[in-house]
Amino acid sequence: MSFSFAFRPRILDALRGYSRGRWFADLGAGITVGIVALPLAMAFAIASGLKPEAGLWTAIIGGFLVALLGGTNVQIGGPAGAFIVIVYGIVERYGVAGLLISTACAGLLLFGLGLFRLGSLVRFVPVSIVIGFTNGIAVLIALSQVKDWLGLSIDKMPGNFFSQIHAIALHIDTVNPHALGLGVACLGGLFLWPRLFMHDSPVLLRLPEGHTIRSFVRIPAPVVALVSLTLLAHVMEYPVETIGSRFGGIPQQVPAFALPDLSWDTVRMLVTPTLTIALLGAIESLLCARVADQLATDPHHRKHDPNQELMAQGVANFVVPFFGGMPVTGTIARTVTNLRAGATTPVAGIVHALTLALIVLVAAPLALYIPLSVLAGILLFVAWNMGEWHEFARLRKFSNHYRLLMLGTFFLTVVFDLTVAVEVGLVLACALFVRRMSELFRAEPEAQAMTGIPSLAWRLHGVLFFGAASKVDPLVEAIEKAPMGVQVQLDASDLFALDTTGLEGLEQILKAVSERGGRLTLCGAQAQPASLMERSGFNARLAAQSAAPQPPAAASPPERSPSSGETPG
Description:
The chain is an alpha/beta fold. The chain is built from 23 helices and 6 strands. Helix 2 packs antiparallel against helix 14 (332-340) and helix 7 (177-196) packs antiparallel against helix 9 (221-236).
């Protein structure tokens, strides 16, 4: 099969017949999502153990490249909550330099996945594993924000679950009531704000059309919480930790291009973080693209190209580290916001990046006053929305296999880390799949006409592969107990697939029949099993056995015991 390089960003097709109306729709959506991205980008970076500008410029540069080069119409790229736990662990163990190198290497890996048309492989990850690690990450994000939400006096939060709980318990008596008040107000406001302005809410029903308050409907809740609570804390002079007190503010300039200290030994040491970032980035971005496809109502919308999207994510993740950024992926919350704000093309994603850049370059000094407890409240809200908590209640409706995969991945993510959870989850999923498939194979005994010749017959159903090969053993045992000259017939018309281990089982049947001086007949083989039997020489051995002279059969065949016809299944 020949390989052809295909790199065609979606924006090239989206701009065909681009109208003025679509431009204004994309402009409005881009500005909206750019404003929404401001508090989230800072919060994600701070929670990851980085400076707030790392998240901001990741959203700007990464978001611009994903929109410009991606394979979707409305996807917004940038830092994501799913990476908080991963990035924090990498920074704690390998330092910021290790994060930059592993992110750049993950970018190369993502680009390679898209280049070789492997985007569809991400769909092979079972949904139970995706739900398990997503809920696990949401728990870890929420736990990591308790320190700032309560205003606890902890110099540095540890990286693992039990150590974090221990640290919080030791310092629970240092709660800052002002920080807690702001955090509770932020969290409560984020839940209440959208409900105040629903179409059937009592607030809107009592207001006439065109009332000034109705214009607030379009202002995103995180922006309202960030601005109002920052003003409150500044005016009231609350003694709470802010971005300025912890980080000294945000530079009002584009970060300088810098090469990390790269060496082959360092790259080898960072293989696991690289694979983790690449895997999570691929899953998150393509999952986000699928969600956007399902929600899109625009007649011009086209389904995403997973390979082009992975190449764009690869470019973004390779470039962003040279400006001190963190991993980039598709972001579901901002993509859905972009879609609902009226976006139709990747132009909205470009506008989002430019809007965010303008805010940072013009209004960066104002970020000094943002309380960290407010950002923690925003992240707690993100964690709540990120988790699919209803799936726990639905577990009773699914099989034990599904429960084991989902709960196992969830607990491994929380207690250990995402890499261990996904690795164990995939191995377990493969093992459970093999077991499930093996249960589908069966060999049913068939009645034989009384011809005076001892005979056995089975109809094979399903897939005879390495996981089901042991189910051939009862057939071999039944043949070994049969009289000399036994005639065996296998009907393979319902045998859909056969692998080499399964073929070895058929060889055992042929050998057992030959030792009894009998004859094996195999009929009705479908295309794939027939091809393997022909290529392996099984058909030739079967024909040679059939042509061999047959010994005289027993005078009268013994009555077949019920066990001789039993097969597993």
